[in-house]
Amino acid sequence: MGLFDRFKRKEKIEEPVERLENFPEMLNAKLLFFDKPNLNPDKILSELKLYYENVDNPSNDKALLYFFPDIKIELKDATISAQCTIFVPDETNAKAEISQEAFQQNWHWAEANETAEKCEYEILVSDFMTRTLDYKTRLDLFMSFLVAVTKATNPQVVYSISSQKLIDPSSLIKSWDGQEKEILFGIANVRLFNISNSDTKEILMDTVGLSFLGLPDFQIRFDNLNESEIARLLWNYAYYIFEQGDVIESGNTLLGLEPKSKWKCERQISLATPERVVINVGSA
Predict the structure, then answer these.
(1) What is the pLDDT of residue 57?
(2) Which of 42, 44, 89, 144 is most solvent-facing, going by the fewest CB within 10 Å?
(3) pTM
(4) Nearest 5 degrees, angle CA 174-CA 178-CA 180?
């Protein structure tokens, strides 16, 4: 039996309900440094060509813009090449800025917060004019660009804005270049929240980051389940929907922790910020 099962169609004809959906957002990550980074456009281009043979050179030294002629973006009245860019802050505003959320869910890297707090400089890596691309093509482009720039600049921390987490650069490179590629490691995360107003010490766990690709994230609220097992299950759900697309509807079921258990799905607005559409999972 597969990970995803559907309920049988109901015989009763129901009025159509507007489907809750996410829409793609710009993908961003900050590279954080102890010391002022030395950006070498030729070195960045060399690293990029290991992923994409056909890459055009950057335009200038403050916004290093790279064009990928083999990846086309269809606009209403034109066809352009996909683009990614590196933004370099002005000298007067170069200090690294990190959202407080980035310090709260770094279960994957014990030294994350301590390392990031020592960083004084940042550069911003972003895709540009790519939101209409197929989400898999888009993620491959952005992550290859991010990893190439990481290799070329040697930051101390990669701050993934979509996943609200801090990443060890060597772990990011390994997740993308390793034999078993972890496609979502750089843009998604699984989070845990204690629900303070709950009498039964309830926990909320969710995924964050999939919404930036236009896919729904997942959330589950519980009080008597193993947190590590739920985390693994949420990652499985995330990879499933990434592979299959936005195919889960309210009333469908997903396999739960036990081999024959089914959990009911409902598309709804997330309980935790950022506000986005999630698949809420609960006992069927």
Answers:
(1) 78
(2) 42
(3) 0.89
(4) 125
